[in-house]
Amino acid sequence: MRQLDHQKALVDKWDELDELRESINVYLQFMDEGEDVKEEISTEYDTFLSKLKDLELQNMLSGEDDHRDAIVTFNPGAGGTESQDWGDMLFRMITRWAEKKDYKVNVVEYQDGDVAGMKSATIEVTGNNAYGFLKSESGTHRLVRISPFDSNSRRHTSFCSVFVSPIIDDTIEINLNDSDVELQRFHASGAGGQNVNKVETGVRLIWTGQLSDGTEERVVAECQQERSQLKNREKAMTLLKSKIYELEKNIKEREKQKLEDSKSSNEWGSQIRSYVFHPYNMVKDHRTDHETGDVQSVMDGDLDGFMKAFLMSRVAEQTI
Q1: Region 255-279: what's the mean pLDDT?
Q2: Residue 88: which domain range?
Q3: Would you say 13 and 55 are in contact if contact means Cβ atoms under 8 Å apart?
Q4: Could you tell me whether strands 104-112 and 118-126 are parallel, antiparallel, or unpaired per DSSP bridges?
Q5: pTM (2 decimals)?
Q6: Are residues 7 and 156 in the same domain?
Q7: In this structure, are residues 149 and 115 in contact, taking their beta carbons and an 8 Å threshold?
Q8: CA angle 215, 217, 223 (to 5 degrees)
Q9: Tell me: the pLDDT tens digits for 140-155?
């Protein structure tokens, strides 16, 4: 049904473009007859181009999992408060992007930093093609700025990894040995009523095993959004299987950007995108060379340009 809805949405958008084309042609006929309709034509033309770009972008989402909802995990790198604050900024950036798309965002897990920011976080983004768009954000993000936490106002470089995976459903079967999964319980934090910090409702699942290519991997999934430990465990298991599925998918697709790149260490030379706040303003994606000087808009969730450049590069790779 979701695939059918996706196809219907494409047809509806195409019909909208066709109606705009007809409208522009009518205005052109009015202009030929001497009517002053330049402003109307300009407005219709701008709308047409905007909708055409949206359709072009959506048409690039042809992967088997692009239509799925997404899990986004944030893990700040070494650097203490500075990196934890950067992780929180990325958390806000992607959340703002999702809200602008009218996607639903659920915070599955969030651990506050010692001073500011956060130690780790996981969100669930629900909406048409959520994973298809957000897969462009998977990797290490690098920040260069004057640290607000440095009394000497020195320039700092911080890293945070973002890992995006599609949320699997009953159509995908992932079998895990119970002996490979460790269950940890903890006190949930944040809003949640009287149970918070009194009952161990938070659940952490840790899978340690081999992927299909023989690689040893350790995958962690947490959930503390529900007040029931059972529900949190079920949710954590879905997140765990989704993450493992994404790792296996990367292997099977034999992407040029290997698994180590998408879950690379948070250090120099591994970043997919750089955000420079000082001594100049620039955000640059190192995979596509797409860049902008409007740093504030990007941090407010304006990521469509980077996502489109990434999707276009993937389409280009597939046609070579």
Answers
A1: 66
A2: 70-169+264-319
A3: yes
A4: antiparallel
A5: 0.75
A6: no
A7: yes
A8: 155
A9: 999 999 888 777 778 8
